[in-house]
Amino acid sequence: GAGVSQSPSNKVTEKGKDVELRCDPISGHTALYWYRQSLGQGLEFLIYFQGNSAPDKSGLPSDRFSAERTGGSVSTLTIQRTQQEDSAVYLCASSSGWGPKETQYFGPGTRLLVL
Amino acid sequence: GENVEQHPSTLSVQEGDSAVIKCTYSDSASNYFPWYKQELGKGPQLIIDIRSNVGEKKDQRIAVTLNKTAKHFSLHITETQPEDSAVYFCAASTIGSGGSNYKLTFGKGTLLTVNP
After folding, report:
1. Closest C-alpha to A71, from A84, A55, A53, A86
2. Contact A7, A109 (CB under 8 A)
3. Which of A24, A37, B23, B86 could share a disulfide with A5, CB 3.0–4.6 Å?
4. Mean per-residue pLDDT for A76-92?
5. Strand-pair category, B102-106 with B45-51
6. Which residues partner with B48 through β-bridges?
7. pLDDT score at A42
């Protein structure tokens, strides 16, 4: 079956512009996560969705970052007024449940470059 | 919060040799430890995981060991092949700030190169 998909695969933008990144989780997966992968920093947790609600936003680095999920499926991560330090790979993952031992399946990521 | 340390950052082995990657974690409440393999330009793919009620798990050439007392876990790859070359990440599952969700805290990764 289809895995997690993300779009666009690559995005180049100018400093100060807003960008939207999309994640389409595995069908039926109720939990959705966003992570950021920066050079030399590994993967950093950003936000978690259970259904349409986001009980854990603790990883969002600033108020320029926001995310939403509609219909318990597709999620959009929005970065406003992008800065060069926002350049990174943004990864989305989904799991069938929210428990501590649920396997998270990752998408291919969106590579964001802010000039 | 949880802190996961991973070593080494780079590892180069000859084809057929074994490779070992080690991770330590800080939160004794963590009880799920997955390993991901990431190839260039792709997202991380789960290769094996271990839950805290077992000490070792094997899947063909890959094995993971867990020592909860010492709070460390390791990935062992035997009979390495060039296609094993990738970045490997360990992770620990910890409770999130929502109080009911769990999130993965990752190590910084190990670049494994298997030389033919």
Report:
1. A53
2. no
3. A24
4. 97
5. unpaired
6. B35
7. 81
CB spacing of B97 vs A56 below 8 angstroms:
yes
Give me the residue from A43, A48, A106 closest to B96, CB to CB. A48
A58 touches chain B (CB under 8 A): yes
Pairing of strands B10-14, B110-115: parallel
Cβ contacts of B49 on chain A, cutoff 8 Å: 103
Q: What is the pLDDT of residues B5-49, one digit of tens each?
A: 999 999 999 999 999 999 999 998 888 899 999 998 899 999 999
Cis ω on the peptide bond leading into residue A8 (within 30° of 0)? yes
- Looking at the DSSP bridge assignments, the partners of residue A114 are A13
Phi/psi for A85 (5° steps) reads -70, -5
**Tokens standing for B109?**
């990764």
Q: Kindly give the residue spans of alpha helices, DSSP state H, lying in B16-116.
A: none
Residue A1: pLDDT band with limits 50, 70, 90: low
Nearest C-alpha in B relative to A109: B43
- Kindly report the number of other CB atoms within 10 A of residue B43's CB atom: 22
- Report the residue count for chain A: 115
On whether the CB atoms of residues A13 and A113 are closer than 8 A, the answer is yes
Quick one: CA dihedral B98, A32, A50, B57, positive or negative? negative
Q: Is B101's CB within 8 Å of A58's CB?
A: no
Suggest the residue from A47, A49, A101, A111 to mutate for an interface test with chain B (most B CBs closer than 10 A): A101
Sign of torsion, CA A80 A38 B77 B114? positive
